[in-house]
Amino acid sequence: xxxxxxxxxxxxxxxxxxxxxxxxIGDLIEVGNLKLMGEIVRLSGxxxxxxxxEVTSGLRPGEPVVDTGHPLxxxxxxxxxxAIVDGVQRSQTELWNLTGPFVSRGTNIVPLxxxxxxxxxxxxxxxxxxxxxxxIGTVQETLSFExxxxxxxxxxxxxxxxxxGDFTVEEVVGELETADGIVPLRMMQTWPxxxxxxxxxxxxxxxxxxxxQRVIDTFFPCAKGGAAAIPGGFGTGKTVTLxxxxxxxxxxxIILIGCGERGNEMADVVAHFPELEDPRSGRRLIQRxxxxxxxxxxxxxxxxxxxxxxxxxxxxxxxxxxxxxIIADSTSRWAEALRDISGxxxxxxxxxxxxxxxxxxxxxxxxxxxxxxxxxxxxxxxxVTLMGAVSPPGGDFSEPVTTHTLRxxxxxxxxxxxxxxxxxxxxxxxxxxxxxxMDVASRWWSQLDSGWExxxxxxxxxxxxxxxxxxxxxxxxxxxxxxEQRLVLQMAEMLRxxxxxxxxxxxxxxxxxxxxxxxxxxxxxxFYDEVEPLIRQGVPIERIREMGVVTELLRLKEKPGTEPxxxxxxxxxxxxxxxxxxxxxxxx
Amino acid sequence: xxxxxAGLVYKTTSEIRGPxxxxxxxxxxxxxxxxxxxxxxxxxxxxxxxxxxxxxxMVQCFGDTSxxxxxxxxxxxxxxxxxxxxxxxxxxxxxxxxxxxxxMPRPLSTDxxxxxxxxxxxxxxxxxxEFIQTGISAIDGMNSLVRGQKxxxxxxxxxxxxxxxxxxxxxxxxxxxxxxxxxxxGAMGIKHEEAAYFREEFEKTGALSKSVMILxxxxxxxIERIVTPKIAQTIAEYLAFDLGMHVLxxxxxMTNYAEALRAISIAREEIPTRKGxxxxxxxxxxxxxxxxxxxxxxxxxVTLMPILSMPAGDITHPVxxxxxxxxxxxxxxxxxxxxxxxxxxxxxxxxxxxxxxxGIGAETTREDxxxxxxxxYMAYAEGARARGLVRIVGVVGLSERERTWLExxxxxxxxxxxxxxxxxxxxxxxxxxxWDLLSILPEEDLIRVREAYIxxxxxxxxxxx
Lengths: 588, 465
Prior knowledge:
- The complex is a heterodimer of chains A (588) and B (465).
- Chain A is an alpha+beta fold and 588 residues long.
- Chain A has four domains: 3-71, Elongation Factor Tu (Ef-tu), domain 3 (Beta Barrel), CATH 2.40.30.20; 117-187, CATH 2.40.50.100; 201-436, P-loop containing nucleotide triphosphate hydrolases (Rossmann fold), CATH 3.40.50; 449-582, Orthogonal Bundle (Bovine Mitochondrial F1-ATPase, ATP Synthase Beta Chain, Chain D, domain3).
- Chain A has 16 helices and 27 strands.
- In chain A, strands 8, 19, 20, 21, 22, 23, 24, 25, 26 and 27 form a ten-stranded mixed beta sheet that branches.
- In chain A, helix 5 (300-319) packs across helix 6, helix 7 crosses helix 8 (400-406) and helix 12 (483-500) packs antiparallel against helix 13 (514-536).
- In chain A, 55% of the residues are buried.
- Chain B has 465 residues and is of the alpha/beta class.
- Chain B is 32% helix and 21% strand.
- Chain B is built from 14 helices and 20 strands.
- In chain B, strands 9-16-15-17-18-14-19-20 form an eight-stranded mixed beta sheet, sandwiched between helices. Chain B has a seven-stranded antiparallel beta sheet with strand order 1-7-4-5-6-3-2, with no helix packed on it.
- In chain B, strand 4 and strand 5 (44-53) form a beta hairpin.
- Chains A and B meet through strand 1, helix 1, strand 9, helix 4 and helix 6 of A and strand 5, strand 11, helix 6, helix 7 and helix 10 of B.
- Strand 9 (102-103) of chain A pairs antiparallel with strand 11 (119-120) of chain B, so a sheet runs across the interface.
């Protein structure tokens, strides 16, 4: 008994329709004879405003609209992992098989495959009392990923029956006796994407998300359960940096949302992830990755939905007790979709044409990140870390999306055009970036190496000092500076080339484990401590630059493990002694 | 759609506002439908439906509306804008709205394609990875082009972007392969002599018989430009994915296209964003650019090279800015280099090819290619910095090291970037020049190149072995 109506007007992706009964805001609508997908975004008198997720060319006033009676939901169950879907969870691989290489309209396929049989292993038995969030069984979703089937958040009762065996996601695996009667249990459940999934309790963050990227892990880490933003003009390496995080971060599940970005980049992910191995588990990266590909020439409104879809899938895996990292590239395109729809609704714009509620919407999304105790008995802990790219027009960080995003995130990776021009990647500017998770990171790193905090602070200080000295050097020339200051410049250059620059396409350098990061940074500081007294006592900077160990240090990042670092330290001692002897330096 | 509704004719225009016509009392008109507008003189122009309700439609007119009155005849065709596809399109010249300009009849075919095209399913895309040798060092060495890439040229008026585009079209080859290629040339609001230049260049090399030209020139109706790139891309898709050809699409000048889009938007009284451009400029440009690429299981490819002029050389202007966010890199021409007599005046620092990494390496170009490019970037950036310093402290104020960087930058511009418009360098030649230049620098500064490659390719070591 769905509510039906007719199309009154078509203005691009916005459809005005009249229904015979009262539809609800947020209801999912089938639009026109082609049954395109849409969603009600405004009600005004008898008119419903429907935002259509597909191209509306050829639609006519008078064609029917049908209200499905439910909002846009995500289908949650085995079969999500490893898939590539669009913003409304249609499998792109399946669409390709069905309709060819070009996306066709009105092809409504269900998100989760209904035929595929999964081997379900029950973890509870008849008579057990369960509440929403309790795990009732597991499924091996990919080769090494365990999918935990849970009681939907709003249900509880006593298990009446349950059985292990081979089932499709729709088949009944058991029955639950609730206060309202007996309900069937299936592996699949649904959840409205615009609503956060409930949890028991929010927890403080305790662990950094390790990414194997030195500038991130060592200098500007993001916590598991935290939120980070990476703004930068085009060509500053947002996408490559985020893909590196997707590849190497130590989350259990990665949700990669390509929101209004390039098709070829998504193709690149699809082509390369299945070949790459997780350095920790050894399993293929694609086996822990979900790709949401809503590329730039797909309809704008589906782009708006794609972020919510991604976050909902992420929360679902979080509820199983996993650490999930969600990467959204780019939130600016999502904001533009908001602006587009708002403009068609003729709302009065605030800044740069964006609606006044832009800030609220950004907050709503980033607030869905967090480390939580999930629903269900016991204390199961999971986290959602949210990282978003921002594409500011003209690379100007004062525009609305960047400024509003900065209010709700904990880590800010500021990309720098100048660095990108000299191919210093990741082009994260160490003076403009920040992290609010330093206490979390310090605790974690200090367990690995008690001197970490000190080394990091000293390295940052050297970099800061160098940028101040550079200001002077720009006026009087480097040559006119005292050698102590030229040494600081030299150190900054070495830290930049030898530590901060990391080649994503170098077989070794692409991933740097924590032990190596701290050892590497330490050896640079050791270098400074060795040569600084020499400089103070009259050894010219040119002589320091001639020390063979300098090149050695700069190449350490390309060599696997920490052994070469120890060897370099020995070499450093030897060469520093040689210089000291040569210049008869005694006080060291 | 019911048959009797199609082809209905109205004379009920209530308003003409710039390129926009409001038509009242209509029935059964569809969104985006193709419209034919007949002037009293009998001349017909096309348009399309921008907004439609039960009894009125807003129509954008691709021709000139001046001289029209409210009695113009409006015919709704019941179809969206489609163009006929056949191999006979190759070698032809059309107007910006697909009227033949070469004196030959309209092409006939039952295979009609919607100019808006479809979206290539991201899962069906094949990663572009075939290196195209353009024979231009600044491109091949540092911003390599691959088949299926979209790589725009950002330029300014007065710079030789046309010469560069023609040189690329002339010289582009895949080393060691001979496959069927075609050029689709879409012109939006460029001058007659520019269009003639491309025509001559194509003619000289015999490429004209392999090309399709869609020309909307500076004195043609500006709104017509809205469809010109879409027609070009529709033909390119057909040649590539139906006929299996490797198609190079040149679209020039995209800034003129964006201005036409802005004109429509303003006439519709939409809320403008930056510089009056509509908020959907990004999405709209994406529907044109994203049609380039490769498809798994199909042999052809669409490589796109849009040319756009940056008003006042401003790279943060909405058109180059949004283009850069969609395309896989950009080649940037700069007046400064041009004034120093360097052709192509391409500044490698802000230029970028995102797909370079997939196209180069031991199997396609050479194993050291990526490292060498990286090192060139760094060295040239250092040189540019030193050049800035010289202005303040003079050459004497530079350290020995800075002077070397400076020397590198000068020679790099004059020996690597600079070349003749008819000079076609192989990628090996390009890399040899690169190594010659890098050998000016102390070896310990070549930190971006793996030691193994230094030992193998550095001129100092090469002579040893």
